[in-house]
């Protein structure tokens, strides 16, 4: 019988964000979670973040005893990890969150018939505001997909997509938090340039991004209409928007998502 409801292979940033998020959401107790990582400092940080979770240096101690096994290692080490991953008798559902690694590669590295789901989450899962895409493998059942959806919805929103679109999800919501942090930093810098104290500018910038995003999600209004409601004729906002267009903000952001999606595709070919 599996001992752990969720087992993580790799206990780094994304594993601890997901594990923390699902405990906060009440999907599992920390004692029902195990994680393995060769790095003792990483194990310690995970244990400090999630007191009661079981930490191991050996992947087999987790992979043999988990109902759902979440592969949270870098794409570059996935091949080596799969090559030495004994599964328990009641084989777990294997979920990979690695950017770019195709389902076919995961299935080829695991025992024949293993149920696999590939997921692309993001770090705001830690605070229940994640955004994920997922896709089932050859042997994944409706129940498997429902279990993964339950996990992802406990930590945010999730969409099932064809595997061919997971690189696009990676470019947008997987990498997207980093793009938005850059935007927050830039807004804050703008505030400081205009004379605000840094601490005030920082808070105003983050709350503005969070509030604007909530307006899109909660009103269901198109962003263009919401933007029009901010920009008075001859006012301040339209002057700022003109400066944004001069700096090609939109094509720069589109290019960032495209570059990240292409990099995800490349990682899959390695
Ligand atoms: N950080 C992010 O925002 C997101 C990351 N991902 C994916 O999640 C995966 C993990 O990324 P992060 O958590 O950011 O990286 P990370 O570097 O924080 O964690 C990866 C962990 O794997 C461990 N590891 C290395 N070799 C191992 C092995 N043989 N067995 C077990 N563990 C091993 C490392 O010691 C490290 O602690 C990656 O594949 C990444 O593409 C997906 C979505 C978002
Ligand atoms: O940068 C990366 O490769 C990972 C995947 C998505 C977000 N972080």
SSE map:
Elements lengths: L3 E6 L3 H12 L8 E4 L3 H10 L4 E3 L2 H5 L2 E6 L3 H8 L10 E4 L6 H7 L6 E5 L9 E7 L5 H13 L1 E5 L5 H9 L1 H18 L4 H22 L3 H8 L5 H11 L2 H21 L1
Parallel strand pairs: 1-2, 1-4, 2-3, 4-5, 5-6, 7-8
Antiparallel strand pairs: 6-7
Helix pairs in contact: 7-12, 8-9
The chain binds 1,4-dihydronicotinamide adenine dinucleotide and (2S)-3,4-dihydro-2H-pyrrole-2-carboxylic acid (A1CAB).
The site of (2S)-3,4-dihydro-2H-pyrrole-2-carboxylic acid has 4 residues, from helix 7.
Enzyme class: oxidoreductase
GO molecular function: pyrroline-5-carboxylate reductase activity
Protein name: Pyrroline-5-carboxylate reductase
Name a few traits of the molecule.
270 residues; alpha/beta; Rossmann fold; ProC C-terminal domain-like fold; 8 strands; 15% strand; elongated; binds 1,4-dihydronicotinamide adenine dinucleotide; binds (2S)-3,4-dihydro-2H-pyrrole-2-carboxylic acid
3D architecture notes:
There is one protein chain. This protein is α/β, with parallel strands linked by helices. The chain has 2 domains: 4-162, NAD(P)-binding Rossmann-like Domain (Rossmann fold), CATH 3.40.50; 176-269, Orthogonal Bundle (ProC C-terminal domain-like fold), CATH 1.10.3730. Helix content is 53%, strand content 15%. It contains 12 helices and 8 strands. It has helices spanning 13-24, 40-49, 59-63, 75-82, 103-109, 142-154, 166-174, 176-193, 198-219, 223-230, 236-246, 249-269, and strands spanning 4-9, 33-36, 54-56, 66-71, 93-96, 116-120, 130-136, 156-160. Strands 3-2-1-4-5-6-7-8 form an 8-stranded mixed beta sheet, sandwiched between helices. α7 (166-174) crosses α12 (249-269) and α8 crosses α9 (198-219). The model has no long low-confidence stretch (mean pLDDT 96). Bound molecules: 1,4-dihydronicotinamide adenine dinucleotide (NAI) and (2S)-3,4-dihydro-2H-pyrrole-2-carboxylic acid (A1CAB). (2S)-3,4-dihydro-2H-pyrrole-2-carboxylic acid (A1CAB) is lined by residues 99, 170, 174-175. It comes from Aeoliella mucimassa. One of its GO terms (cellular component) is cytoplasm.
């Amino acid at each position: 019988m599996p001992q752990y409801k969720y087992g993580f292979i790799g206990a780094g940033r994304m594993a601890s964000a997901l594990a923390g998020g699902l405990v906060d959401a009440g999907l599992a107790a920390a004692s029902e979670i195990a994680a393995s990582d060769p790095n003792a400092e990483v194990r310690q940080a995970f244990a400090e973040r999630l007191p009661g979770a079981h930490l191991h240096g050996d992947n087999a101690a987790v992979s043999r005893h988990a109902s759902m096994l979440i592969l949270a290692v870098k794409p570059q080490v996935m091949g080596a990890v799969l090559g030495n991953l004994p599964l328990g008798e009641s084989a777990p559902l294997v979920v990979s969150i690695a950017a770019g690694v195709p389902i076919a590669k995961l299935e080829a590295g695991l025992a024949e018939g293993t149920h696999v789901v590939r997921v692309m989450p993001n770090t705001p899962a830690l605070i229940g505001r994640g955004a994920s895409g997922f896709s089932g493998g050859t042997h994944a059942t409706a129940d498997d997909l429902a279990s993964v959806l339950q996990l992802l919805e406990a930590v945010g929103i999730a969409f099932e997509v064809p595997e061919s679109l997971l690189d696009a999800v990676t470019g947008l919501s997987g990498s997207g938090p980093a793009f938005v942090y850059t935007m927050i930093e830039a807004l804050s810098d703008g505030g400081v340039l205009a004379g605000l104290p840094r601490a005030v500018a920082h808070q105003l910038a983050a709350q503005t991004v969070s509030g604007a995003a909530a307006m899109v999600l909660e009103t269901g209004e198109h962003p263009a209409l919401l933007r029009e409601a901010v920009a008075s004729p001859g006012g301040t906002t339209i002057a700022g928007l003109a400066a944004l267009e001069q700096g090609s903000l939109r094509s720069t952001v589109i290019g960032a998502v495209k570059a990240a999606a292409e990099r995800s595709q490349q990682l899959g070919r390695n």
